Amino acid sequence: MQRFDEATLRKLEQLTLVADQARVGALKGDRRSRKRGSSVEFADYRNYTRGDDLRRLDWNVYARLERPFIKLLEEEEDLAVHLLIDASASMDWPDDDRLNKLVYALRLGAALAHVGLATGDLVSVALLGRRGARSWGPFRGRGNTLNLLHFLETAVGEGITDLNLSLRDYALRARRPGLLFLLSDLLTPDGVKSGLSALQARGYEIGLLHILSPDELDPPLSGDLKLIDVETGRDAEITLDVSTLRAYRDRVQAWMAELAADCRARAVHYVPVATDAPWEKLVLHTLRSQGVVK
What is the DSSP letter of 52? Predict the structure, then answer.
């Protein structure tokens, strides 16, 4: 996975992830509260965590106790941020890394995670695969970004991910609900409705980033073809002509419209993403316009 350059990191570090519904944690970080009337006076201490800004270390306390503590202000809160990335075989498409869904999801997930780390949020990342979830975190502080990138580089798209099962399992296992992003093509046997319900029942605020490649939205194919499912190995022989392609595009658009309507009813942020769209524009403009970042 391509690493971020310094200019991109600086742009990301100017952003903050926004949670309108999720509860802010009892532990505090560098997040600025939107509550009115709160002050910036000293409030408390918390233990130093790797990646914390050393400028906020109380050196007088360290000299007395020989333990590092971070000073907290009353206006500051932290948020638990969860990034769930679908690592099924269908995500590893197409072969071109410039358009590959898994590569795009990993890069986008890394960007959102870095925004959270840089603002003091408690960030967890999970790769959802056929063998269950592989997790990283929770960690706080921009100093953890390099370790995060090393973790994401181990991702391999393989097998079938049952997203409902994976999301229900995550809802049960995760210790602290918060703002959660699911990055997936949503090509899963039974959809995601029951999984989203399980997460929301635990108090998660959800952003659903629906990632598809351009050739899935508008196939550049025609004629007599044999299509093979990369996850199940099943094949189907079809003839693609103008009317068949039109019917396919209509069904895809209807599917996405149904997802968008269901997400609106649930107060879930639904963001359709094509992998030919620059991910930087998605983070800096699209997600900002939807109120997911500011």
Answer: -
Q: Are residues 50 and 131 in the same domain?
A: no
Q: For residues 144 and 231, what is the distance between their CA atoms, to the nearest angstrom?
A: 33
In this structure, is residue 12 part of a structural domain? no
Note the pLDDT tens digit of each residue in 28-81. 445 544 443 344 555 567 777 776 777 778 888 878 888 887 776 544 567 899
* Structural contact between residues 168 and 198, judged by C-beta atoms closer than 8 angstroms: yes
Global pTM reads: 0.81
Task: Give how many domains the chain has, as a whole number.
Answer: 2
143 plus 282 within the same structural domain: yes
DSSP H stretches of helix in the chain: 6-12, 59-65, 101-118, 145-152, 163-173, 193-201, 214-217, 242-266, 279-281, 287-289
Q: Which two tokens stand for residue 76?
A: 């500051």
Instruction: Indicate whether 121 and 103 sit together in one domain.
Output: yes
pLDDT digits (tens, 9 = 90+) for 209-239: 999 999 999 888 767 676 676 666 677 777 7
Find tokens 């906020």 and name the residue: 56
